[in-house]
Design brief:
The strands form 2 sheets. Strands 3, 4, 5, 6, 7 and 8 form a 6-stranded antiparallel β-sheet that branches. This protein has a two-stranded antiparallel sheet with strand order 1-2. 37% of the residues are buried. The longest helix is centred in the middle third of the chain and has 19 residues. The protein has 269 residues and is α+β, with helices and mostly antiparallel strands. The protein has one domain. Helix 5 packs antiparallel against helix 10 and helix 8 packs across helix 9. It contains 11 helices and 8 strands. The N terminus is likely disordered. Strand 1 and strand 2 form a beta hairpin.
Length: 269
Amino acid sequence: MPDSSLYRHSTNLIGVSTACIAHHLFNKNPQPLHIAGTRESAHGLFEQLDRQTDLNECGGIFQDYMCVVFGFETEQRLRDDAAGRRRYRNSYLRLIQDWGLDSNNAQGAVFKGWVESHFGLFPQYHKQLISNFDSKGWITYIEEKMSSRYHNNCIYMQLDLLYEYCQWVIEHFGFPAARHKTLYRGVNGLEDHCIVFGEDKNHKIVRFNSLISFTDNPNTAGQFGSYILEVEVPMVKLIFCNDLLPHHALHGESEYLVIGGDYSVKVLR
């Protein structure tokens, strides 16, 4: 078994041990996960959502709420401050967009930092393999995830609400699946992945990065490598999916953002 010293924290904000949610057996029998205090702090939003019966309406309500609370309106975002400098307001939508462009940029480090602080999982990769706390990869990750440029608008709170909204949609609409969703990821080989256990050449237990992208279309996954990893993802580990919101930047590749850990994987060629 690979060394787990760079794998997880002993604490998180979801009330279930990180060792539990990171284990591949959790994925077979998932339990509900909630970020402490998030729905309670936005009870007005979720009360309004509870009165809706249309998913698109819910998406619009959520995005309008986020726009008002965190000041995403164009006139606010572009307004100059007293010193004549243009204000930058980071947003969950910008983070999702930048993740789609490059998951190893500074915004990707912020996203992985949120997973680390809330779910307890250390990243396994950021620009390069993170082998220990003295490695260049770890230092770069720490520097980028702490950048004040991306923490100036309660970005972790925004991501908390995004996760809880995603889970609310799954609970109320059974969308995109009630319990598990079959997802795919294209890779050129398994050399860059941590193999926890190999049952045979087509079935592995793989330790994924703390935050990982999948697609629900195997043909799309096949464009990114000669091997396709097929995974049954529990819906409680889903942060974002293609049809969750009416307006976002990841429509093109049907991308799903998923909490990492150990997964049972079927390798397709």
